[in-house]
Amino acid sequence: MEFTRVCSLSEVPQGEALKVESGDTAVAIFNVEGELFATQDRCTHGEWSLAEGGYLDGDVVECSLHMGKFCVRTGKVKSPPPCVPLKIFPIRIEGNDVFVDFNAGHLAP
């Protein structure tokens, strides 16, 4: 695994999201009650940023374009119109630094 530092913990307040990028890969970092999760940033139904245009409610993000919902823990669709889950990315915290492995995004089993 190849982790890349993407931000500090303070840049992702509880209940919020942050978009980070490496090359052509955009990832959304979500803070759910102090626990961080990383998913692809783009909704699988429409080309829309979940970090910049979504609403986080617990561990579910709602895309503001068509109101589809995804679990940020698993990437699974919680409410249509999306039918394809989000890729999830390995995330690691070291001290105050947040790292993501951009090459290891995958769909939940």
UniProtKB/TrEMBL annotation:
Residues 4-100 form the Rieske domain. Keywords: 2Fe-2S, Dioxygenase, Iron, Iron-sulfur, Metal-binding, Oxidoreductase. PANTHER family: 3-PHENYLPROPIONATE_CINNAMIC ACID DIOXYGENASE FERREDOXIN SUBUNIT (PTHR21496:SF23), FERREDOXIN-RELATED (PTHR21496). Signal peptide: none annotated. It comes from Janthinobacterium lividum. InterPro entries: Rieske_2Fe-2S (IPR017941), Rieske_2Fe-2S_sf (IPR036922). One of its GO terms (molecular function) is metal ion binding. It holds the Pfam family Rieske. The keyword Metal-binding applies. The keyword Transferase does not apply. This is Biphenyl 2,3-dioxygenase ferredoxin subunit BphAc1.
